[in-house]
Amino acid sequence: MTTYLLAGGGTAGHVNPLLAVADGLRARDAADDVLVLGTREGLESRLVPLRGYELLTVAKVPFPRRPDRAAAAFPTRFLRAVAHVRRLIRARGVDVVIGFGGYAAAPAYIAARRERVPFVVHEANAKPGLANVLGARRAAAVGVAFAGTPLRGAREVGMPLRREIVDLDAAASRAEAAAHFGLDAARPTLLVFGGSLGALRLNTAFGGAWRDVLDAGWQLLHVTGQGSDLPDPAVDGYAVVRYVDRMDLAFALADLVVSRSGAATVSEISALGIPAVYVPYAVGNGEQSLNAAASVRAGAAILIADADLTPERVRDDIVPLLRDDSRRTAMRAAAARTGIRTGTENVVALIDEALAR
């Protein structure tokens, strides 16, 4: 029996690939022990137990960004967290640690090294986080979702994805998807979404240009987000929904996607071979633009800056794309070449490699 400790969390970008790998390990051998290390504050505190895994916790110790009181206390607090993880590794007989970034990953990497336990790093974003930058220097193996991610020893393995995405047969599910959203399976569909909370820029742009989409012969599935107050005009061919709990069906219906470019979003759209228009979130350190860069270079997607997405830009750039079948066909072929559906299996192979050493 092998005992795995998967460390990471904080956001869905860390938790979802972690859970995909956990599911892959459990499916391969139910006798193995799959443990998760996270914090009490992160999203993992809710999602990990719901998926049926034991969550071990470590104190959240943010890296200091400025010389203040928290920075002075950081060394003591961080070493205490490392010591705590070392005790967990010994007590649970952990054979290998797999980190996905976030507050739990950094102490896990150092604890694993001091306990002489191999560890593997997976980085979901094209611009890596600090914990993974540090961890990659001593890792037994490093996997990245996007080619060109600047981590030592990195190999492109793709993103571990949800099973419902990996196993999706879009053509076979299209009729079910159309019925689910009250749309027509025979008409081409533009899917617009900005995440669970929505994206005001996307909502404003398509709230002002949805008629142009319909006039181009398309229908529009617009996921506005739970906080949106965008009105639903109740027009045939325009489905306005606040939240979608079956993104697999939304993707099954989509012939083109307009969305933000979070790492998981880009990975899922690419894996399914769907042409895309990405509108990177303007707040942050630019990682969303980098996440989309490989798809744009390959010709599978185009990029529009957040500040430039207006109803006029939809009419000038996106509506012509809806009318250009040959261009979308080329984009779809490029997406099929760049997308990776085997991210989970690839990360599991890295884990096996680390154990073999």
UniProtKB/TrEMBL annotation:
GO terms for molecular function: undecaprenyldiphospho-muramoylpentapeptide beta-N-acetylglucosaminyltransferase activity. Pfam families: Glyco_tran_28_C, Glyco_transf_28. It is an enzyme of class 2 (transferase). InterPro entries: GlcNAc_MurG (IPR006009), Glyco_trans_28_C (IPR007235), GlycoTrans_28_N (IPR004276). One of its GO terms (biological process) is cell wall organization. Residues 5-143 form the Glycosyltransferase family 28 N-terminal domain. Keywords: Cell cycle, Cell division, Cell membrane, Cell shape, Cell wall biogenesis/degradation, Glycosyltransferase, Membrane, Peptidoglycan synthesis, Transferase. This is UDP-N-acetylglucosamine--N-acetylmuramyl-(pentapeptide) pyrophosphoryl-undecaprenol N-acetylglucosamine transferase.
